[in-house]
Amino acid sequence: MFSRAVFRAPRVFAPRVTLASRWISTEIKSAIDEAVSSSPVVLFMKGTPEFPQCGFSRATIQTLGQQGVDPEKFAAYNVLEDDDLRQGIKEYSEWPTIPQLYVNGEFVGGCDIVMQMAKSGELAELLEGSNALIPEEDEGPTEAQVTPKKR
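Structure for Monothiol glutaredoxin-5, mitochondrial, as requested:
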């Protein structure tokens, strides 16, 4: 029925990109929206802050701890507990790796970005500006107020 062409046009070599992408459901998107807005600082990670399950998640959680993030203003979500969350967060942020850090609802980046920002001081500025750090305690007066006792 169809004949083969004797002449074949040269192929244009272009890299094939296969995206393993699926559309994020509205249910997953709204659950992630809610999670991202649940605290000023939100980390999607493998494992928990107490027991990270990958080196990148461990490094990110340690960096946040070193920065002095207030535990009351921090939430972590274990993507290993829910495959929909694990895949959905990648589509939500359009970032292919985990961990993922959000501050005040805005995507900051993954482990490499967090490390670079910590090194440059940008992360401390961002967290301080977001009022997400443990408040400094008032140490009292800077000079001693001593009055001698009269006898």
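Helices lie at 26-36, 55-67, 83-93, 111-120, 122-129.
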